[in-house]
Design goal:
CATH topology of one domain in chain B: Aspartate Aminotransferase, domain 2
Strand order of the largest sheet of chain B: 1-7-6-5-4-2-3
CATH architecture of one domain in chain B: 3-Layer(aba) Sandwich
Largest sheet of chain B: 7 strands, mixed
CATH architecture of the largest domain in chain A: 3-Layer(aba) Sandwich
Strand content of chain A: 5-15%
CATH topology of the largest domain in chain A: Aspartate Aminotransferase, domain 2
Oligomer: heterodimer
Radius of gyration of chain B: 26 Å
Shape of chain A: globular
Strand order of the largest sheet of chain A: 1-7-6-5-4-2-3
Largest interface: A-B, 211 and 203 residues
Helix content of chain A: 25-40%
Number of strands of chain A: 13
CATH class of the largest domain in chain A: Alpha Beta
Number of strands of chain B: 12
CATH superfamily of the largest domain in chain A: Type I PLP-dependent aspartate aminotransferase-like (Major domain)
Structural class of chain A: alpha/beta
Number of helices of chain B: 16
Helix content of chain B: 25-40%
């Protein structure tokens, strides 16, 4: 077996050193009743060719976004990733290293985490950021837990236009505690009034920016209202590229900004692995979950980096930790930070402008189609429309014509009345004008 | 004083710095590398975007007004920056990585290639179901392998990492108790003191009261104490098996019976499943829920601290409460269930957006198919063989707190350093100068100055012999009174010891432009 170095002679020599008759003897502490008698009903080992053939056959059964024009967003976004990114993250020293517990031989990882934290703080307009969480949805739930710790309050208000998966993750976690969750109904046409839902018992209010229907809203007044009653404003960003075109949440008064960083460097991956972004104000630092890299000096006075403030974390504090999180999303951080380094200020803002332009063209192309009613007036690169019929079958009809034509409301809000006719559409720099027109033509035919 | 390689063997920091001083701070192949933010200059770019058409913008008054402050670099500068950073890292590809409990085994590159097939890597999680049949089938095949290897009834694939799997498992257990009307009364979770920190942290995060169970003199959980603590208010026990001392819990079947008799469930931390895969099925031990770290047992790369993947296998009693989404067998293939209906009606909810770590599922399945049932059993056997070889070969110079045989990791304490002035930390740092990543230090907490060594099945006998020779050499040096050399270590790494106290006392967690940091002073 190609991954196992020992020869029979090696094993025999080692067993002699140990003083054991065979490997089985080393398992003597396992109760006899628990040891497998018969071989498991699984195949024996296979060579590279056979494994590659079998798994490639499964991949070939999917019709992915590179094959077909894709207008899918709703929490995961397709962007072009420069070839440099994947080359660099596959370097052995990055790919096959562990969490940087021995900083003297992990400065590569620690320095890029420090740079990543700086990038996230700059994009979100916040003061500090951690070295990443699992994904945007779990980062959002962690932010709510952090707000509960900071305020000592148990009432949580969720925008109805928060991605329903994010909402479900928060609600599932909060069911473990004596918490009151007030989740507003989805407002596909926007105009949600959240300030009246806040009171003196509210720990936090969670909004999405741009929201799940694509609306971009100014949260400055909501931030003030939250502050007035001692609640925190949590802003969730599912499309990080939007921050190249939009005002930063920090500039609007957000207390915690969480995000999904998948759009830069990471790719779609059918939902994972992704990259949770987490940023806040310095005064809340000690309640921030997750790993943090910090600057220090070595014994010769040279600048270096370490994991720091670990007295918040589970391996030190055990049941008193801020979170149970251990793993971060290290390699995805690296992909994100390399992609952003390549883009730079001009490239990142240029990419955002290009996304916006494509989405505006898509909206204009669809605006005149009978049976399509635009719902989102102000948006970045995705928006919602209402169809004159359920969107699910329309999306499957589009797929049959070779177009991945958006996410139907029924996929995200199953069974919720009124949402089944909503279609979420997204355009990025990867969509051509021809593709946009092809979607328009196909929708005209299907809705005719 | 120079050793036989011409390196200073006992020089303090100042003289070492003087001897290696260079104009730019580079040391041969080890280049000093500024931060990205110190390298960038306006006007450079690392990507060429197509021209942006003029449009009637739809951002309203929310368009960004000022610059972000990101540095601008060309592609060759970016490549050089990260290549230079990479060379400051230790990696399993470059050397033995004996971190106990972390399982740094070989990462096959075939798995990387397959995870990057566009059919998986470029597939949107909300794509129409008619376009994603292959992805669901891959998840179904992964589930089949994991269920067959563990002998369990059902699996939740979506947990993002080991600790997330623990959370998933305990939430499933809470839901099962609630369904029996015992949700409010069963509030305690029993956790051995040797457990990973994530276990008590998860139980507390889940709203349970955590109670620590002591270990016996032979490194196992104290069954008498545990049984005495069981009662109608206990929701579950969380046990790692093999445990963090590298030992199999001999009485695990009796422990499971006792927990079940008291109406509780048995959660197993599956971090060490790599020691028994293909040889022992957790389902045969009476376990109700166990997470599997795909990044440990099934070799998906650790990537400098993630991403991980932590699917949870469940007993028949817990299966109905598993989180959404679920992959279930349907006819000849598999289906993805995203709503709480039918067989998922009792699901406790959702713990992450979308379906889990698909990229890791592809790698783990490729690893399992490559090994097959024979290779997986041989891999766990070789992992245990290698750990016992180290234990036996170091027995006379280091001190092991518990009698062998061990499972996949060899545990030592610091008694062999008594009176030398050398600590476990010093010993570990001296290993760096000898070309090795240190073992896990000061864990598990039940052993003084613990050194937990996990060689994994990936190491050849020659590699192990070299490693053993180095540890014997260092143990002898410590006993020969060379404490100063250990205190000064590492001397040959990209950095000397770093001041962690300073980092925590005066946190600097991001780069700040020089003008701003001056203004703040």
């Amino acid at each position: 077996m190609r991954y196992l170095p020992h020869t029979a002679a090696d094993r025999a020599a080692m067993l002699e050193t140990i003083g054991a008759a065979d490997i089985e003897a080393l398992f003597c502490d396992v109760p006899a009743a628990a040891r497998l008698g018969a071989a498991l009903p699984l195949p024996d080992h296979q060579g590279e060719m056979a494994v590659e053939r079998a798994i490639a056959a499964l991949a070939a059964r999917n019709r992915h976004s590179g094959m077909l024009p894709s207008f899918l967003g709703a929490g995961a976004y397709r962007h072009h990733v420069p070839a440099t990114v994947d080359h660099l993250i596959q370097r052995s020293e990055f790919l096959t290293s562990y969490t940087p517990y021995q900083p003297e031989i992990a400065q590569g990882t620690l320095q890029y985490l420090f740079e990543f934290q700086t990038q996230v703080a700059l994009l979100t307009g916040m003061e500090v950021a951690n070295a990443s969480m699992y994904d945007g949805s779990t980062a959002c739930a962690e932010a709510v837990e952090m707000a509960r710790r900071l305020t000592g309050r148990n009432r949580v208000v969720l925008s109805g236009n928060l991605h329903p998966h994010y909402r479900a993750v928060v609600e599932t976690l909060l069911r473990l505690h004596d918490t009151v969750v007030e989740a507003l109904p989805p407002a596909p046409a926007g105009g949600e009034a959240l300030a009246p839902a806040l009171d003196q018992g509210t720990a936090c209010v969670v909004v999405q920016y741009p929201d799940v229907f694509g609306h971009v809203c100014d949260f400055t007044a909501l931030a003030a209202a939250a502050q007035a009653c001692g609640a925190l404003l949590i802003v969730a960003v599912t499309e990080v590229v939007a921050l190249g075109a939009l005002r930063a949440p920090g500039a609007m008064g957000a207390d915690i900004v969480v995000g999904e960083g998948q759009g830069l460097g990471v790719g779609l991956n059918y939902g994972g692995p992704y990259l949770g972004l987490f940023a806040t104000r310095t005064k809340f630092l000690r309640q921030m979950p997750g790993r943090i890299a910090g600057e220090t000096v070595d014994a010769e006075g040279r600048r270096g980096y370490v994991l720091t403030l670990s007295t918040r974390e589970q391996h030190i504090r055990r049941e008193k930790a801020t979170s149970n999180i251990c793993t971060n999303s290290g390699l995805c951080c690296l992909a994100f930070t390399i992609h952003l380094a390549l883009l730079g200020e001009g490239g990142f803002c240029g990419l955002a402008a290009l996304n916006h332009a494509r989405a505006v063209h898509l909206a204009e192309r669809l605006a005149g189609i009978a049976g399509v009613t635009p719902l989102t007036a102000r948006f970045f690169n995705e928006f919602a429309v209402a169809l004159d019929r359920p969107a699910g079958p329309v999306v499957e009809a589009l797929a049959a014509r070779g177009i991945l034509g958006g996410v139907p409301g029924s996929r995200l809000w199953p069974g919720l009345e009124g949402l089944d006719k909503v279609l979420l559409l997204c355009a990025t720099e990867t969509n051509t004008e021809d593709e946009i027109d092809a979607l328009g033509v196909a929708l005209e035919e299907i809705l005719a | 004083m120079m050793n036989r390689h011409g390196r200073p063997s006992d020089a303090g920091p100042a003289s070492a710095a003087a001897e290696t001083a260079t104009l730019l701070g580079h040391r041969g192949l080890d280049h000093e590398e500024p931060l990205l933010f110190e390298l960038g200059h306006d006007g450079r770019v690392g990507v060429d975007l197509p021209p942006c058409p003029a449009v009637q913008g739809r951002l309203g008054d929310l368009a960004r007004r000022g610059p972000i402050g990101l540095p601008s670099l060309s592609e060759p500068q970016v490549v050089r920056h990260y290549v230079r950073l990479s060379r400051k890292n230790y990696s399993i590809d470059a050397g033995l990585y004996p971190l106990g409990s972390c399982t740094m085994k070989h990462n096959p590159r075939l798995n990387e290639k397959l995870a990057r097939l566009p059919g998986f890597a470029d597939l949107h999680p909300l794509a129409p179901p008619s376009t994603t049949a292959g992805a669901v089938e891959l998840m179904g095949q992964l589930a089949h392998w994991l269920l067959t290897l563990t002998g369990m009834a059902a699996i939740a694939l979506s947990p993002k990492a080991g600790a997330h799997g623990e959370l998933c498992g305990l939430m499933t257990i809470r839901a099962a108790h609630a369904a029996k009307g015992e949700g409010a009364s069963r509030r305690r979770v029993l956790v051995p003191e040797s457990a990973h920190g994530t276990n008590p942290a998860t139980a507390a995060y889940c709203g349970f009261t955590v109670e620590s169970i002591p270990a016996t003199a032979d490194g196992r959980v104290d069954r008498a104490v545990l049984e005495a603590r069981l009662g109608p208010d206990v929701a579950a026990i969380m046990l790692t098996n093999p445990n963090t001392c590298g030992l199999f819990e001999r009485e695990i079947i009796e422990l499971a019976r006792a927990v079940h008799a008291a109406g509780g469930y048995f959660y197993c931390d599956g971090a060490n499943f790599n020691a028994i895969m293909g040889r022992v099925r957790p389902g045969d031990l009476g376990i109700d829920a166990m997470h599997i770290n795909l990044h440990k047992t099934f070799s998906t790369p650790h990537g400098g601290g993630g991403p991980g993947a932590g699917p949870v296998v469940l007993s028949a009693a817990l299966a109905p409460f598993a989180p959404l989404p679920l992959v279930v067998a349907r006819g000849d293939g598999h289906a993805l269930i995203e709503t709480a209906e039918g067989e998922a009606a009792a699901s406790f909810g959702r713990i992450t957006a979308f379906h889990g770590q698909m990229g890791m599922f592809v790698r783990a399945l490729a690893y399992m198919m490559s090994h097959g049932r024979d290779g997986l059993a041989q891999a766990s056997g070789d992992a245990v063989l290698n750990a016992n070889y180290i234990l036996a070969a170091l027995d006379d110079v280091m001190t092991a707190p518990f009698a062998g045989p061990c499972m996949h990791e060899a545990l030592f304490d610091d008694h062999f350093l008594d009176g030398t002035g050398v600590t476990t930390l010093d010993f570990a740092k001296a290993m760096i100068d000898e070309g090795y990543h240190p073992m896990t230090m000061y864990f598990p907490l039940v052993v003084h100055g613990a050194m937990l060594i996990e060689p994994t099945e990936s190491e050849s006998k020659e590699s192990l012999d070299n490693f053993i020779a180095v540890l014997r050499h260092l143990a002898a040096a410590a006993k020969a009174g060379e404490a100063e050399r250990f205190k000064a270590a590492p001397r040959l790494a990209p950095r000397r010891r770093l001041d962690e106290t300073l980092a925590a006392r005066k946190p600097v967690l991001r780069w700040t432009p020089p003008t701003l940091s001056k203004a703040a002073e």
